[in-house]
Amino acid sequence: MIAGSTPPHITVDDRVVVAALPEEIDLANARGITAMISAAVPNDAVGVVLDLSGTTYLDSSGVHLVFDLADRLQARQQALVLAVPEVSNVRRVLELVDVSVVAPMETDLPAAKERARA
């Protein structure tokens, strides 16, 4: 459990790990979230979807979480896809740091899961 924060809700759907992230991701919880997601990814998973549809705040620690997780998954030949609504401040932050270099963004969860399977 991440102290003082809502942990990510992690499920597995047809070999895709889906992590619904909390409303706020910052220095206080980013490292714990990364550890929880990393520990939840089995070797036979084809990829991970970070569901940021409920996330309203993402600081530099949250951005680092995405890049760090992408590196870890790439080393295991697993995909990382982000589900981020089109009208989201979080999406704007991720576009500014050019996150698409390490992980594609889809506007909804079903599209993100499909892309992770592809």
Short structural description:
The chain has four helices and seven strands. Strand 1 and strand 2 form a beta hairpin.
What would CATH call the architecture?
2-Layer Sandwich
What characterizes the major β-sheet? Answer: 5 strands, mixed
Number of strands: 7
Q: Return the CATH topology.
A: Transcription Regulator spoIIAA
Helix content: 25-40%
Radius of gyration: 13 Å
Question: Within the largest sheet, what's the order of strands?
Answer: 1-2-4-6-7
At the fourth level of CATH, the homologous superfamily is STAS domain
Percent in strands:
15-25%
Number of self-contained structural domains: 1
| Structural class by helix and strand composition | alpha/beta
Q: Which residue ranges are poorly predicted, with pLDDT under 50 across at least 5 consecutive positions?
A: none
How many helices? The count is 4
Shape: globular
CATH classification class: Alpha Beta
